[in-house]
Structures are given as structure tokens and as C-alpha cells.
Amino acid sequence: MQKKYIEVTDRKDRIKRSFHTLTSMVGRNIHNQYRNSTLGILWTLLNPLLNMVIITIIFTTILGRNEMDGIYFPVYYLSGLAVFGLLRSSTTNALPCMVVNHDLLTKTRIQHEVFPLSNVLSALVDFCFTALALFIVMLIFIKKPGVGFHPTLLMTVVPFLPAFLAFCLGVSFILATIYIRFRDIKHIYNVVLTLWMYLTPLFYSVSYIEGHERIKMVLKLNPMYHYVTYFRQLLIGQVPSPMTHLLIYAWGLGMFGVGFLVFHFAKKKFLLYI
Fold first, then answer.
1. C-alpha to C-alpha distances, 194 to 55, 188, 223, nearest whole angstrom
2. pTM of this prediction?
3. HEC string of the chain?
4. Bridge partners (DSSP) listed for residue 67
5. How far is it, in rounded angstroms, from Cα 219 to Cα 125?
6. In the chain, where are the structural domains located?
7. How far apart are CA 152 and CA 198, in angstroms?
8. Tens of pLDDT along 83-122?
9. How far from chain centre, in Å, is Cα 1?
């Protein structure tokens, strides 16, 4: 009985330490990201806005496209950029997290999962600022096609973000595990991210790909296609179909489950290779 009580107490203490470490690491990640910058965290707003201006000039001036799928192009692009940026930031920063935090890993008794999770939550903060930039742009272009503030935007918090964060965390678990044994994955993943970005309809629409049904099918096998499309439907006031809900949660929970299992069974040997 006493042994069981000690085990329960020890588990509670580890959870408390893990939670404290998690909150501290999220704050540290955000601080380190902008500590040498004059404008600091304002770059979280400015960076997506500047990217939007450049892409908008190219597509509206040179290619003559003012809207995509009935949405004014700046809002269309920035909404996709916000979603893909959350994936990019969370997974890229989580990739070396076990190696970077080697000292904490060896000197404190906390859950190993805290390290990838802290990077996903830090990326979520960046996503909130990018969403703020998106809303500012929507206010500026409020009278343009497909631009408006609808009650469906509340569905971004639930059910959209839980499914998408689960997906990002699953990918982060896998990358963090691979990086410990194979450091070159960092460079390979940068190439994969570039390809992934072009396979995701950020600045183009799948509906414009005429006569290439196989290409459309391949694009729709990309999980990011469904997350980006889901978010854009919320922006224009549409409630996504039950099938779309099923898809984003199937990808999210499926990737989280695979990633967690890979990470869980490999973490016992982490210290041997760090």
C-alpha cells in the first residue's frame, strides 16, 4: 500500500515538474525567436503580411487573378499561409529538440514528450499572431468577395485546432526521434517541406487544374489540403461537411498515434545517442 502511494506521489510530482517545464520552455522559445530583433514579436505580424504583399502583387498584377475559389486573393493566400506556417514552425523547431535540451533531459525527471510539445505550443502562439494579421487584412478588404466575419470562425478553436495540433505533434514526435540517430534529416526535411508547400494549395486552387484528375487526386491525398480547405471554409461562413471533419480527425489522431508510439518505444535509448 505504501509502495503504491509513493508511486502515485512520484507520478504527480513528475507531472507538476513537466507542466512547469513546459510553460517555461514555451516562453523561452518565443523569447529566443525574437531576442536579437529590433521589432521583436512584431515580426510575427509583419512576416506573413510582407509575404502576402509579394505574392499578391505577382498574382494580381502579373497573372491577373484577384480571387481564388470566390475569396479575395490576399485573404485566400494568408489563410493558407497561417495554417501551413503552424506546421512548418512546430515541426522544424521540434526536430532537434531532444538534442538541444540534452541537459534538461539528463538532469531532471520530466516527461520526454514535453520537449516536442513545447515547440508545437510555441508555434500555436505564432499562429495566433498570424491569424491576427489575417483579421487585419480582412478588415481592410471587408467589401471584397468572400471576405467577412462569420460565426463559423469560432470553429477554428474547436474542432479545427485540436485535430491539426494532434497532426503537428505526431509529425514532431517522429522527426525528433529520427534526428537523434540521423542528423541529416534536418536538411532532408527542409526539402520535403518545400515540396509539401507546393503540393498544398496556398496560392493556387485545385479547381483551376482542368483535365488532370490524377493530379487532383494526388493533391487531395495531402493531409494539408484538407486542413487548409477546412480553415478557408470557416472564413467564408461554411460549415465543413461531416466527411471533412472525419478526414481532419483521422489524419490528426492517426498521425499522433503513430508518432507517439514511435517516440515512446525509442525514448529509452535516447541518452545512448545524444
1. 16, 10, 15
2. 0.90
3. CHHHHHHHHHHHHHHHHHHHHHHHHHHHHHHHHHCCCCCHHHHHHHHHHHHHHHHHHHHHHHCCCCEECCEEHHHHHHHHHHHHHHHHHHHHHHCCHHHHCHHHHHHCCCCCCHHHHHHHHHHHHHHHHHHHHHHHHHHHCCCCCCCCCCHHHHHHCCCHHHHHHHHHHHHHHHHHHHHHHCCCHHHHHHHHHHHHHHCCCCCCCHHHCCCCHHHHHHHHCCHHHHHHHHHHHHHCCCCCCHHHHHHHHHHHHHHHHHHHHHHHHHHHHHHHHC
4. 72
5. 28
6. 2-273
7. 27
8. 999 999 999 999 999 998 888 777 777 888 999 999 999 9
9. 44
Amino acid at 137: V
Q: What does the block give as the cell for 4?
A: 503504491
d(CA 62, CA 202): 18
